[in-house]
């Protein structure tokens, strides 16, 4: 697609994943993870969002800086950063509670749109709260990528599909024929490239009528939290280079396996001694 290394900008959501039973916290959030993981793959990456000035926001800021992610348009604000409490039950993660923090106050400015035009890929997610700005994002992004996780609905498809270049959907609870049907419905709604992740069953993608699938790569599993975001980063980087659907799915699988080998989304953990005291308990489905 390009005869050079692509560039990727993550916009919107961020959080600190607090592992309550392990005493460690890690930078996270889909848009943060994808930007950091793209930088690990050697491409120029940036992040635009709102981080607090507390220890949680500083953890994310410092980690992104260390990975070489450009933060020139990232805001810092007073208040609490977004956090998620995560527990583990026989190796499976459980989301115990969360707070949105200062990221709720994040709004895009004119300078942000000018900035995003300098990137080949702009990526955001359903957790970023930017659905009302998708049309403007699409107008300013060379390629707009959106991760719907397992929160996608027919309403999302009907209102957003034709504005997004690449949609990522978590389909791990569906049978293969159901997955293919979902991808086709999103393509019919106007999305050129639709990618479905199926956890241990691999992935599949549909681009302009061509359907491809790929399995998983062997992994030394330490933590699966960042696997889905690792897949997204790997897919986007390879797709932007080669426009080869099978190669992009394989690159996603390779990067997902690599993400499983580290704690947190992309490492950079710090120990903590006191839990945030303002996170309401909340049950939520784990992302894959």
UniProtKB/TrEMBL annotation:
Record GO terms (molecular function): kinase activity
Keyword Kinase part of the UniProt annotation: yes
SUPFAM superfamilies in the cross-refs: Ribokinase-like
Pfam families in the cross-refs: PfkB
Recorded family membership: Belongs to the carbohydrate kinase PfkB family.
InterPro entries registered for this protein in UniProt: Carboh/pur_kinase_PfkB_CS (IPR002173), PfkB_Carbo_kinase (IPR050306), PfkB_dom (IPR011611), Ribokinase-like (IPR029056)
Sorted UniProt keywords: Kinase, Transferase
Superkingdom as given in the UniProt entry: Bacteria
Source organism of the structure: Agrobacterium vitis
Name of this chain's protein: Sugar kinase
Kinase among keywords: yes
Domain Carbohydrate kinase PfkB: 17-263
């Amino acid at each position: 697609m390009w005869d050079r290394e692509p560039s990727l900008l993550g916009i919107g959501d961020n959080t600190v994943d607090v592992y309550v039973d392990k005493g460690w916290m890690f930078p996270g959030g889909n848009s943060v993870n994808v930007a950091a993981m793209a930088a690990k793959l050697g491409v120029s990456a940036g992040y635009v969002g709102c981080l607090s000035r507390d220890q949680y926001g500083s953890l994310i800021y410092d980690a992104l800086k260390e990975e070489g992610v450009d933060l020139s348009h990232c805001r810092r604000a007073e208040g609490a950063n977004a956090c998620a409490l995560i527990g583990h039950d026989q190796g499976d993660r459980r989301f115990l509670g969360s707070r949105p923090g200062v990221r709720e106050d994040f709004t895009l400015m004119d300078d942000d749109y000018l900035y995003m035009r300098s990137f080949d890929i702009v990526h955001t997610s359903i957790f970023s709260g930017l659905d009302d700005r998708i049309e403007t994002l699409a107008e300013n992004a060379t390629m707009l990528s959106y991760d719907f996780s397992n929160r996608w609905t027919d309403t999302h498809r009907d209102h957003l599909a034709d504005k997004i270049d690449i949609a990522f959907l978590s389909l791990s609870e569906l049978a293969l024929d159901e997955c293919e049907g979902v991808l086709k419905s999103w393509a019919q709604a106007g999305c050129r490239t639709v990618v479905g992740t199926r956890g241990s069953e691999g992935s599949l993608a549909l681009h302009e009528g061509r359907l491809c699938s790929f399995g998983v790569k062997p992994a030394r599993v330490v933590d699966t939290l960042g696997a889905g975001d690792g897949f997204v980063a790997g897919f986007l980087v390879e797709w932007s280079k080669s426009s080869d659907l099978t190669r992009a799915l394989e690159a996603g699988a390779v990067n997902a396996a690599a993400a499983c080998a580290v704690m947190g989304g992309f490492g950079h953990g710090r120990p903590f001694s006191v839990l945030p005291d303002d996170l309401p308990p909340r049950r939520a489905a784990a992302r894959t």
